[in-house]
Fold:
Amino acid sequence: MVAANEEVRASGRTITRRPCTASIIVALLVAASTAVGANDPLPSWDDGAAKRAILAFVAETTSPGAPGFVPPAERIAAFDNDGTLWAEQPLYFQLAFVLDRVKALAPEHPEWKQKQPFKAVLAGDVKGALAGGEPAIAELVTATHAGMTTEEFTKIVGDWIASARHPRFKRPYTECVYQPMLELLGYLRANGFKTYIVSGGGVEFIRAWAERVYGIPPEQVVGSTGVTRFELRPTGPVLMREPKIEFVNDGPGKPAGINKFIGRRPVFTFGNSDGDQQMLEWTAAGGGTRFMGIVHHTDAEREWAYDRTSHIGKLDKALDEATAKGWTVVDMKRDWKRVFPFDDR
Amino acid sequence: MVAANEEVRASGRTITRRPCTASIIVALLVAASTAVGANDPLPSWDDGAAKRAILAFVAETTSPGAPGFVPPAERIAAFDNDGTLWAEQPLYFQLAFVLDRVKALAPEHPEWKQKQPFKAVLAGDVKGALAGGEPAIAELVTATHAGMTTEEFTKIVGDWIASARHPRFKRPYTECVYQPMLELLGYLRANGFKTYIVSGGGVEFIRAWAERVYGIPPEQVVGSTGVTRFELRPTGPVLMREPKIEFVNDGPGKPAGINKFIGRRPVFTFGNSDGDQQMLEWTAAGGGTRFMGIVHHTDAEREWAYDRTSHIGKLDKALDEATAKGWTVVDMKRDWKRVFPFDDR
Structure:
């Protein structure tokens, strides 16, 4: 694709006043590059509509002279994490971390034996623990994510992510990432895009491993935050994590988080649930060339099949909007030749 | 300096097990480059201790083989804005914006004629308006910074900054920036540093002009934030600015803001007041090679002279700590050959 883009760039110089011709050339190059297996930047993607839409978007936005050209500084690509970059079943992975932490911390909290939602967690009754809805989850999160320094928390997450195993795949959670999305992240970066995670998960939970797993540095992770408090200790300053949620980067919070952390509107956004709908709308409303993508979990065999009625990663209204507006919906079963890096090909 | 660094790099390969030698070579190169006026990256800096400390830091952190080498990804440089990159007297510039906005909005708010602190602002009594301290300022800020979309706010700031004039210099506020600091920003970036603003000011106020003035893009501005609310209008989605301060990025809030927005600890930090003390401490505590700098306003003739007793940009405890710990204190009168770009040389 790099060579192809250079060709377009060379063509672009002579045809800046004929954008339609540029678009046709871009389309032809996309078609050509898709056919060339050896140089395929997205080998785990089936050569269907989703892959073609991605290739066309990148060719169009990176070809000077093309009507949809986007200057490098504005090439912001935002990805939801849970269900978009890595799996989210049978339970959000950060929630698995929370449950494990409750068990690890239980000896220091004898009162939890009699107190919900902790009592249910300790009895192995996940459904009962989550029956209290968001307040119960918030209580579990603050109890396990606060009371330590930011550095201590990063170490706790790092230790957990290195040792915990996914209940179905019996592998580290960081291996339960989608191979096609890893390819897409690399492809976008190779074309001058800055790739961001924009997740409802905790920003410090994700930063603890995102650079190693996705190549996304800490400063390009946008997520939910808790209050931290600066404390000057005899050994030096620390930031203490307080038991207070500061900002929830989900649903309508995602455009707010993007605006706060990045200060630019993405031109490319991928999500998978109704929690990404507003971020996708925000991206679409930017004008110019935009890409809005949704991962539709349709593969019960290799991963999971769920959408409108799922408690986790519910995809209902956003799916309707995607269909109505022509956003790219990835049918996991059809569009992905491989789901996880560990899958046989 | 680039050629000098390459020489060091070449030397570094052969002397990785002799870091002391590498340090001496670095020091010699710094001395040499300082003497060469034509290639001087910091021409508005006097060849004194402050400039030497900056050059030595950059040479040390960017020379592979040097004991203080910092990988490019970790080269985070944080700058306070008010009093560090641009002036802050006789009044923080954002506060001048607030006062102008109160006057502009007064016709829509007849009740302000009888209500403090608005009444004092409208009577031109700035001192009286600010006598109410932080609650009064917060009231003025929320009244002028909320009730519009983020895009409308950016336009309001852009219009104001293009037309308002500094009361003493009779120039746009964006010209009242420090020439030596513009050179420093460019020099750091040329050496692979990512330059960030970490300001107590509002993040969207600063982003409206920071890229044009400092070359710092929106995603590298950390500042105070207000709550925004996503709203889907018939014409498309907007983010409404709510009259609620969300996060104050000042004093102990600065390390918290750095941790939240950047997720990495800076290796180079410049401030000018006690509001930067915790950010400087946080930087110093990172271990390895670190640079902590303070601009000391000592030039009543070209700029202002103020420190321990000033209401604006008070520099007291941080000055004591800088002296005790050997941080770099810039004496504006002595260390800067030129203060503003418009100064005659």
The first strand of chain A starts at residue 76 and ends at 79. Chain A has 15 helices and seven strands. The longest helix of chain A spans residues 19-35.
